[in-house]
């Protein structure tokens, strides 16, 4: 495993919600970070069929464009009753014809797909959020960190916190959705803590343990 020996890093994302969450996690570690969106890097086409492949595409593009280590996230909602969909195409389910993204529409698509499969009871609506972080260097070296959190798809959506599908994801062991949680509740982790709740925080914890801690 390669250790990160700089405090300057690029957040390889154009997604405002992801950029905010990664900034909240990385901030306490003293990093100077800018996003690919802020630097106006071209958004690479995500042609991978796994979270790992797409995370690497984004991280390597920013690392090569900036000459600095870059951290990307590829994440999605994996629903058992839908054979793993939307999965790596989670963001695509929110795309409109004009290229914009509408996650209310995406959540409605999920609910219709579940109803069409007859998945009505909570035990029939099991799912997980998956996050894969990729740390890439300009020379092409990458390190991967995967985090998952189990839960249930609920309907109707609840809460206005977070972003994306958060209002329909109720994590296992909780009676509220990610959309009803503050950032601190959702992540459930800060450097030095033993546990993490969200998929992104769990992946980030592994990144910290692998690439930052001695």
TrEMBL record:
Catalysed conversion reaction: XTP + H2O = XMP + diphosphate + H(+); dITP + H2O = dIMP + diphosphate + H(+); ITP + H2O = IMP + diphosphate + H(+)
Keywords: Hydrolase, Magnesium, Metal-binding, Nucleotide metabolism, Nucleotide-binding
Binding annotation for substrate: 13-18, 75, 163-166, 186, 199-200
Pfam families per the UniProt record, alphabetical: Ham1p_like
Gene3D superfamilies according to UniProt: 3.90.950.10
Annotated catalytic residues: 74 (proton acceptor)
Residues engaged in binding Mg(2+): 45, 74
Name of the featured protein: dITP/XTP pyrophosphatase
Organism: Neorhizobium petrolearium
